[in-house]
Structures are given as C-alpha cells and as structure tokens.
Design brief:
The chain is of the alpha/beta class and 284 residues long. The chain has one domain (18-278): Alpha/Beta hydrolase fold, catalytic domain (Rossmann fold, 3-Layer(aba) Sandwich). It has nine helices and eight strands. An eight-stranded mixed β-sheet has the order 1-2-4-3-5-6-7-8, with helices on both faces. Helix 5 (143-154) links the parallel strand 5 and strand 6. Helix 1 (2-17) crosses helix 3 (77-85) and helix 3 (77-85) runs parallel beside helix 9 (263-278). The longest helix is centred in the N-terminal third of the chain and has 16 residues, at 2-17. It is globular, with a radius of gyration of 19 Å. One of its GO terms (molecular function) is acyltransferase activity, transferring groups other than amino-acyl groups. This is S-formylglutathione hydrolase FrmB. Keywords: Hydrolase. InterPro entries: AB_hydrolase_fold, Esterase-like, Mycobacterial_A85_antigen.
Length: 284
Amino acid sequence: MKKSLFLIFLFPIMAWSQVRVDTIQVYSDLMEKNLKVAVTLPPSYESGNDSYPVLYLLHGGSGAFNDWHQKVTEPGLVNRMAAAYNLIIVSPGVGPSSYYYDSPTMDSVQYESYFTQELIPEIDRQYRTLAQKESRAITGLSMGGHGALMISAKHPDLFIAAGSMSGVMNIDTRMWKVPEDFRSLRQKGQKEMLGEGLNYEAPDFNPYTVVGLVDQMKANNIALIIDCGVDDFLIDTNRQIHQLLLENETPHEYIERPGAHTWQYWTEALPVHLLFINKYLKRD
C-alpha cells in the first residue's frame, strides 16, 4: 500500500519536473528595446512534433516576466499547469504601470501593439504553437488582468478566452481603496502616459480602461472569467464591470471569494482560470 501511494504522488512530480522553461528576449521595433519573456513548455514538447495551444499569462503593475515562476506560494505552479493541461504558457514582461495599452504620448509605452504585432507572431515563429484564435487564451493579475481583458476585447481575432484575477477593471483611481499618496502617484503616471482630460464617467468611459469596452466584449463572444477577493482594494472596479456585463447581457464567469491583493490569492486563482480556459481551447 505504501509503495502504490508513493507512485501515485511521484508521477505528477516527475511530469512537471520535466517541463522546460525558456527565457527569451523579443525585440520591439515599435519601442526599440528588448523585452524578456518566460516560455513554459509541457513535458511532451521535447519528445514529439505536436503543436500546442498557448496561454498568455500577464504580470501586475510593478512586476516582471518571471513573477509567475518566482512569487507564487506553490513553487512550480506554472510548470504543473503546463504539464497538466499540455499547453505552452507565455509570461511576457512589460514596463511598470503601463497597463498593456498604447500610450498616445510616449513612444516607449506601446504594449498593445507590441503584444499583438510583435510578441504573438514571434512566439508562433519560435515554437510549435497552434497559431489560431481557437487555441489561444490570455489572463493575468492586477494590471495584467486589465491587459488581458483590454487586448482580447480590442483584438477578438486573437483569443478564444480571456480572464482577470484581481484586475484593474477601471483605471479611475477614485474607485480604488488605497491611501491618497498612492492614488496621487498613479494619477500622475496616467496623465504622463495618456494625457489630460480623459473621461472616467459612464457611459462614455475613455478607451484606455476596460469598463469602457464592455460592448465590444458582448460583440466578440470571447469566453470570460473574472475573479477578485472581497478584501482586495480593487473589488469595487470588479463589481462595476460585472454589473455592466450583466446589464448588456454578456456571458461571463464572475467569482468573489475571501482574499486580498496577494500572491496567495493568485496562486489559488490560476488553477481555476486554467480549468475554465481549457474548456474552450482547441487542440487541432
């Protein structure tokens, strides 16, 4: 009995320990700089010629390309997800507090175009991916949740499913439960990247914030999952987009559960997102 139990637990450990994680650099002609990317390959990648679906997994506002490998509270979580779902997981690095959009004022902040015009084509060129919308998904935490829903809403030809974990669904910092000095700092950064005079009020939200894209989400028919902890400082922005999606009758999975803006929360959230996303990914 002890031997059989040992083998049961040993097998998954052996599987994810054979995962390969590449750190590559993708040069952006748009921004004239190299950006690091972590690419996690399932164990079967080395031994065959199959092509794989891809999940783009985005980091938060002050994060980096390797956050999902180094900061989760369960070491090896991303590797285990790549092995369990037999897919490629791509974790790109972007600039701090850049929200994955194209700035109208700063040439160094063109991350939406980088993502769609440079990063995805380069990953499809370097790796055996199923280079089609039906086999590609995107999710992320905090600023990465904003990026995942924004990019997928504006580029529905690229993704079949999208998600957000504790995402910044509205960049209007008045909705954030944060100290005033933090709020002022973020407002200053937004003005530098987006200019003055942006509208933050419904129904004419500015085009740089996710809550302003709910009608596009409805039209796109992309599978959506949104979750946030009830103690998160961004809970009000998540409740706001949930209500807007209900009002315009956009199908989506919405989850609130105990937790705050922490790596413990995101460690628990990632398997939930993979379980949801995997239902939609095609493998042929």
